[in-house]
Specification:
With about 375 residues, this protein is α/β, with parallel strands linked by helices. About 35% of the residues lie in helices and about 20% in strands. It starts with a strand and ends with a helix.
Amino acid sequence: MSTTKLIQGNAAIAQGAFYAGARFYAGYPITPSSEIAQICAAEMPKIGGVYMQMEDELGSMGAIIGASLSGAKAFTATSGPGFSLMQENLGMATMGEVPLVVVNVQRSGPSTGLATRPAQSDVMQLRWGRHGDQSVVALIPATVAECFELTVKAFNIAERYRTQVVVAPDEVVGHMRESYTIPEPGELEVIDRAKPTGAPKDYKPFDFTPGAVAPLAAYGSDYIFHVTSSMHGEDGFSCNTPANAARRVAQLHTKLEENLDDVIMVKEFDTDGCEVLIVAYGVVTRAARTAAANAREKGLKVGVLQLQTIWPFPEKAVAKAAANARRIVVPEMNYSGQVAGEVRKVVGDPSMVSQVNSYNGTIMFPDSITKALF
């Protein structure tokens, strides 16, 4: 029987991870994500999983990489300063095509900044934080329900495409409480990684065919395989030829590029025929929808496009929603307009795009957006 609870966003992320089959958590507490570690410490052992308190965020990433390669669905949670420390090992996971989920509950910076205050300023770090050519999937929820459901989706994407997925709510979404009915087992799709079926002697842990995702064996099984952070061939061992490097890097991108319809998620609110389009994500979506409703009462046709997937950027969805708009407004809780710049690249006339930016550690209110609509 389904259970409806008044649940916090961070708690919904933890519960979504359990629902998706996560059975290993390694992490280091940091505001405003610490509730996720606290819940995992209490609940993981009850469901046959493992919780590890690590010495820092570098160790946390190393632990979940090892756990994933051993066959477990694994994740960790952090905030901006910890996410910075995770980048090198996250790059290792990229090169090794290790499926895992990282939760980054965004807070105000730079550096320690306002540790208990919200921001949306890690957007570019989500995409480009690691060195070298690489792809990552980043999802940003706006509600407690989305915290649960996008976490399940994050594990599905990670497992299906052997990739790393970052779930990046802002502090407000992580700490707000809303009623949510926890789905029964089987109501939401849960995907497990493909495993090899051939003879162990023939197993190759990588497939560099464009768009391909090789099955992943588990350490300790009959399938012996090697994972390295260096450039490598399909057998997992070092290979430094230009031709191999080109195939390796391209496949890391094409396995997502050829499946964008599965990876990219948006929500549209009154976008058909809108004169003004608001493109928003995270908690700002809530203020944007209120501002749009108020503007429609005054006769202005305003629609809202909520980006649940930030990376890969939903170019087609933005272009489609903006097709008939004469103006586009992008409200964000950061100084420079990190998503506004991406929107400008997509639309035909960049001058159509207006920014509304808040970067003082407080939530954005509808009035700030309304002023930009008229």
